Structures are given as C-alpha cells and as structure tokens.
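hey can u check if this looks right to u? its 554 residues, i copy pasted from the old doc so theres a chance i mangled smth
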Amino acid sequence: MTSAPSRTGGRILVDQLVAQGCDRIFCVPGESYLAVLDALHDTPAIDLVVARQEGGVAFMAAADGAMTQRPGIAFVTRGPGATNASIGVHVAMQDSVPMILFVGDVARADRDREAFQEVDLVAMFRPLVKWAARIDDAARIPEYVARAYATAISGRPGPVVLALPEDMLCDLATATDRPLVVRPPQPIDALAMNTLVDLLRDAAAPLAIVGGADWDAATAVYFTAWAMRIGLPVAAAFRRQDAISNDCPVYAGNLGYGPNPALLARVRAADLLIVVGARLGEATTDGYTLVTPDHPGQLIVHIHPDPAELHSVYRTDLAICADCHDFAETAAGWDDDLLAFADGAEAHAEWKAWATPAPSDATLDLALCVAEMQRVLPADSIICNGAGNFSGWWHRYWRYQGPTTQLAPTAGAMGYGLPAGIAAARRRPDTQVIVIAGDGDFLMNGQELATAVALGCRLLIVVVDNGSYGTIRTHQERRYPGRISGTTLANPDFAALARAYGAWSTTVTRTADFAPALAEAAAQPGVSLLHLKTDIEQLAPGLTLTKLRTPAKP
C-alpha cells in the first residue's frame, strides 16, 4: 500500500475504482458528483458510458456485473436519479450479480432539511441491497470502496449503494489506497462431497437445478463434465438457461414460466434434487408448488456460496456452503465410477422435442422466426430481454451456448433488454448481441437507442408488437375473461422511431418476410431494428387468446 499526496475526494474515489480493476462506468451526469466527472476527464483507463435515463444506467451496470463477475459501476445523482436507478438495483439483488451504485448526495451541512432533491439514501436503499452507506470523510473513501467491492462479490453476489455528499467530493484529503479485492475462496468439504455421492448411489431419479450466484464459464465446463459422466439430468433455473450449453446431452430444459410439461413431471418424480447456485425462487418453483418448501418424498442437496441462503426457505437435507466453481471442479474429478443414470439422455430428448418449433397458422410465426435466427446467427450470440410474454418464444426455442449468452432479469423487470444489450455490446464488441423486446417492454427504456447509436454499438433489436401488455392481458383473460381494461397500447411506428435515432430498421408482418429482413439487419455495421407486428391472438408459445377463452371439455 502507498500513501498518496493530498487529493480531492473525487480524485481519490476514481483512483480506488482504477485500483479495483474498474474499466467502465455507466452514468447520467449530475451536479452532485461533478468532482468525480472532473477526475474521470484525466482517467483514460475508465470508459465513461453516458446514458439517457438512470434506470437504463442501472440495468447496464447490472448486466456488466453479470458478464464480468466484478461489480458493474453506476453513477447517478440524488433524488430523481437515485429513485430512477432503484429498479436496476433491485434486479441486481434478485439476479445475484455484483454491482455498486454511487449516488451524489446533498452537502453534509444541508442534510435533514429536505434540501433540493434530498432523500435519505441509506434508508431508501437498505432493503434492496447487501450494504448501503454514506461516505462523509474523503480520507476514508479507500476503506468504503474496498468494502463495497468485497461485499458485492462475496457469498451471494449483489448490489451495494454508496452515497457521496457533493462537498465531501471536493474536500482535499490524504488517503491510503487499498489493493485489489478478490473473492475469498470457498472450497468444498470432502466429507460433504462423499455424502452427496452416497445420496446419488441410493437415488433412483436424481435431477439437478442449476444457475445463479457465482456461476461462470469454468463452472459450466466442470459441471457439464460431471453431469455427462453420470447421466444426471440438468434443468436450468428461471432465466438461467445459459448455465450450461443447451446442446449438452443431459440438458433437460428450463424451469420458470411456460416450461416443458415433461420436465415438470421429472422434477415432481425426482427423489433427489441437487440445487447448485440457484435460490429455488418463486418463478423456478412455480410459486413454491413444483418443489414445496418441505418437499415430502424428496431429498434436497443445496450447494450455494452464501450460508444465509442455505435453509432460508427450503428444508435442506444436505447443505453445502461452497463456491459453485469449486463444487463443480471437485465433482468433475471425483471418483464415482459406479454411478450411471439413463435419465439425462432421456430428459435431453424430451427437451429437444419441446424446443423444436412446428409451423402454425399465425401470419407471423414467432417460433419459426426464432428458428431462422438460430440458423443464421452465431451460436454464441448474446440474447438480452426484459419481461413479457414475447420472451417465451426465445426461452423455449433458442439454444443458449453457455455463460453469459442470456442476459434477462429474474426479477421480471421491463425495459432491461436494450440497456443490457448496450452493456454486452460494449463489453464484447466482436460478439453478436441481440435485444428482444415487447412493445410495452421496449418503450420502458427505448430512449437508450440514442446511447447505442452514439456509442456505435453493433446491436440487432427485435421488437415484438402486439399492441398490448401481453402478460397482463393473459392474466386478465384468465381471471376476468373478455373484460379488457388497461392493457391495450397505442404504439408508434417502431421502425420509423429507430430511423429517427439513426438506426437501420424495417417492419415485418409475415413469416415469409422475416428471413430476408433478418439477413439485411444482420449485415448492418451498427444498430438495426426489426419491428415484428403480431396479433394479440398469439399470447404465448402454445397459447392463443381463442384457446384461453375456450372452456376445457369435461
């Protein structure tokens, strides 16, 4: 450690970010942290991405954290900026991804007077994050930043919020820089691994549910090797379909909304569930009914890096507190030659049948559109989407190639796809990035088209336009059939809107027109947008409005 000469708080803060390996910041500028912006002017090591709304900023940072396993960094101003950014903080928490949000705050002397845009930021964010704090002393910035990194990446990764009084950032102070913070190792205990193998030997129908927490590409490689060797069926938790390559011969499909009925039957019939990294949240477990918290007749082994997650909701028969990477690497090399199950191959065959689209009578068949995209676009393309029924076609029919080829919020937040796509395009400029959005979803953060074009991002955006908040309409039709209220949308011409921002775009209304439009869009050097005009009749994969309104025959 070295003791630096006297610096402003803004300079000290930026120096700490560089020391922690930060190479990108997402922001909407604010007068409350001008001293930080001034320090960034002389810091070429950090790429400053300026967005158009703080919700987009926070989504970008959350997506960046998901890709790098290091905290995505966002800066916003107090009051309106902080409240706008809170949606991305919530997503980072539910997605278990590391993120640090720095919020410019009112001057220390003005606190508690309801000063201009004043919010008690620590109280506001505390329920949403792993840690929230305010830095009142510029000399302690290295301490707070190091702790923020350590908190964000340890155990179950998640967000941290630090409030920065604007006058503190202008103070001159002598501060001692902190070195790079790394995630502390959490190796798996050999006794626990032996116990797991014994449980597998006694099992007739085991199944793994994976994805989340500290899952990464190396974890996927090791876990896939182990699962393939013993024939273990592997299901992905909700929006964790990229946990392992979907081409893996034991991949069984995804849980969440609209899953394969055959997979649901397998989960119910499983006598041993091995849950690695996943939280077994509401979406993955179909409202805690597919796997109940007490799961009679089933044993659950839960491997998770955070002890607070183990036993928190589900009765756990074997709790293993370890990094997913360490568990997977240990399992891949474990001596379990006597274990062999046929279930993995059978489950994969069931998934392939489910994930292969068949033609329908829809004028614009989204399943066939996905199939065409899969045929012509690179297999390692990154799919970014927000929330809505539209995503169901890609969840069912797209074949994800492993971490991190799916960026989608487990919190079900609308407007995530385009900001996440910008973060992905910036982080991996040589990879095809695809943004999938519904009409309601897209306009939650459509203004970030300006950011994407300004940055020269290479993005393919697909907007599915059915003139409705489709997910809510589906729930509405189930509970109040035919009584449409509050779910119809009056939309702009999305292709014209994209052109106004400087993107290439076209509109598609028929299945036959999709392939040539896709080919032209994919050939564009920058941002391209396909406006797919569909009918509300096609509510979701395999579900039409007519079918939903038709009473089931006894």
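The mean pLDDT is 95.
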